[in-house]
Design goal:
Blueprint lengths: L9 H36 L3 H12 L2 E5 L5 E5 L8 H22 L19 E7 L2 E12 L2 E10 L6 H45 L5 H10 L7 E8 L9 H14 L8 E6 L2 E7 L11 H21 L4 E4 L3 E2 L4 H18 L5 E2 L4 H11 L1 H15 L7 H11 L4 H8 L3 H15 L6 H27 L3
Parallel strand pairs: 9-11
Antiparallel strand pairs: 1-2, 1-5, 3-4, 4-5, 6-8, 6-9, 6-10, 7-8
Organism: Micromonospora coerulea
Family: Belongs to the CdaR family.
Protein name: Helix-turn-helix domain-containing protein
């Protein structure tokens, strides 16, 4: 309420109030333009988040921070008058957010729950919070980074004055509003660069796994770009069962797990290159047999140790059973394809046999020995001719073949095979007699049992190799 003399006209009073309001808004607008110009220049130069944080601190005269949505520090610039530790500021904001979420949940009668320490979509605009940071009363002015409906973090200015001056808080509000948009744009640019680099690295890993280099010179040139030693020893590990089949977030989850695998077991001068291939995560691991150098199979043991560690960590992160297998170690980057193919074969056999532990191609010694025979026309013909009578319509489907394989696997023990199949001993005896007539072989003889067992293994291996080769060479 303003009281003036009668000689002052209403028009003059209105003009005075308008000039005061305009002067204030002009001052705020001029200061906002200064802030925007100084930050946009850094954005144009691609200076990065640290430079933007430094400029925010210089403009405000206070500590400035850039945080991710979970209040983890991305950039921090300390003020000169009072030094706050970045972790302390982040912890204070996180605790304050947790308290606000708990208060909101209790205020609505427990009907609303929380999904974390921060809301999924915080309200736009600056917020002012009084906090206790390392035993010091401080005021934080923060603004959420919101671009295209996505919350990417926070920009924060920490005012150490207690109590803070209203004019300073107003200035900090002017700083954080444009800073949130500009910092979000810089984060988007950095994310695009990172994704482009990941795609390029993924293309390189795919080329290594599938042997898609025109010649040795191309391999050496691309390897030199990633500082990838061409002549080192490598092994390939593959894993599946990492995400739900058909889930729309499966590709994203696999890329995140690939990034985790690249950081897992990091050692100096040891390269680990992961890449998602369909529903399989493949990891190229440079083998350094530390701790096993005196052992003749030191490289295989080192690769097996890493595979077991990787399986345990993947299961911990995905909360489901993960199937992991690996190929034999190879010398030189040009032979990585061989290790990858063996790893895929080992994974296929592992899944078909129901093995519940990490296994390498070398661990499946029988299959490793028979792989060339299974791929040959002679091996395929032998398996097909031997098993065909058991699979014919006269045999009644796969039950007869299953009974014979169970009998052979039990070492010719009729009772053990019957218990394995949960059938009566006489039923088992009838099936074996019938199979012997169809095969025209006496299955009680060890030589004939071996022939059926060999045909079964060759057939299993041939089917697995066919599936793997179709995946590796779809054309």
């Amino acid at each position: 309420m303003i009281h003036v003399g009668a000689h002052v006209a209403f028009r003059q009073l209105s003009q005075l109030v308008a000039e005061l309001v305009l002067a204030r808004d002009t001052h705020v607008l001029r200061y906002g333009l200064t802030v925007h110009r100084s930050l946009v220049e850094l954005l144009y130069r691609g200076a990065g988040l640290a430079a933007l944080g430094h400029q925010m601190a210089r403009l405000s005269g206070c500590s400035a921070a850039i945080l991710d949505p979970q209040y983890r520090v991305l950039a921090f610039e300390r003020s000169r008058d009072r030094v706050f530790e970045p972790a302390a500021v982040a912890d204070a904001l996180r605790e304050d957010e947790s308290g606000r979420a708990a208060g909101n949940a209790s205020g609505d009668g427990g009907q609303a729950g929380t999904t974390g320490v921060h809301p999924e979509q915080p309200p736009a605009g600056p917020q002012v919070r009084a906090l206790l940071i390392d035993g010091i009363n401080a005021t934080c002015v923060l603004n959420p980074i919101l671009l295209s409906g996505r919350h990417d973090g926070w920009v924060v200015i920490v005012e150490s004055a207690d109590p803070p001056r209203p004019h300073d808080i107003a200035q900090h509000r002017v700083v954080v509003e444009p800073a949130a948009t500009i910092v979000g744009t810089e984060m988007l640019r950095l994310r695009s660069i990172e994704q482009a680099e990941e795609r390029a690295r993924g293309d390189f890993v795919h080329a290594l796994l599938h042997g898609r280099f025109s010649d040795q010179h191309e391999l050496e040139a691309r390897s030199a770009h990633y500082d990838f030693p061409v002549g080192a020893t490598y092994g390939v590990i593959v894993a599946n069962g990492l995400s739900s089949a058909g889930s729309p977030d499966s590709p994203t989850a696999l890329f995140q797990l690939a990034g985790f695998a690249a950081r897992r077991g990091t050692l100096p001068n040891v390269h680990t290159l992961p890449a998602p291939i369909g529903d399989v995560l493949a990891v190229i691991r440079q083998v350094e047999p530390a701790g096993h150098r005196d052992s003749p199979d030191a490289e295989e043991r080192a690769l097996a140790d890493f595979a077991r560690t990787l399986q345990a960590e993947l299961e911990r992160r995905t909360h489901r059973e993960v199937a992991v297998a690996y190929g034999r170690c190879v010398g030189g980057a040009s032979r990585i394809f061989d290790s990858y193919r063996e790893a895929r074969i080992a994974l296929g056999i592992r899944n078909r046999l129901g093995v519940d532990q990490v296994c390498g191609f070398q661990d499946l010694r029988v299959f490793a020995t028979l792989v060339e025979l299974a791929e040959s026309p002679q091996g395929r013909a032998f398996a097909r001719d031997m098993l065909a009578p058991l699979r014919s319509s006269r045999a009644g489907g796969s039950d007869l073949e299953q009974a014979v394989i169970a009998y052979v696997a039990s070492g010719g023990n009729l009772n053990a095979a019957a218990r394995e199949l949960h059938i009566h001993r006489n039923t088992m005896l009838y099936k074996l007699d019938r199979a012997s007539r169809l095969l025209q072989l006496d299955l009680r003889e060890a030589e004939h049992q071996f022939a059926v067992w060999l045909a079964h293994k060759l057939n299993l291996l041939a089917e697995t190799v066919t599936v793997v080769d179709r995946d590796l060479n779809p054309t």
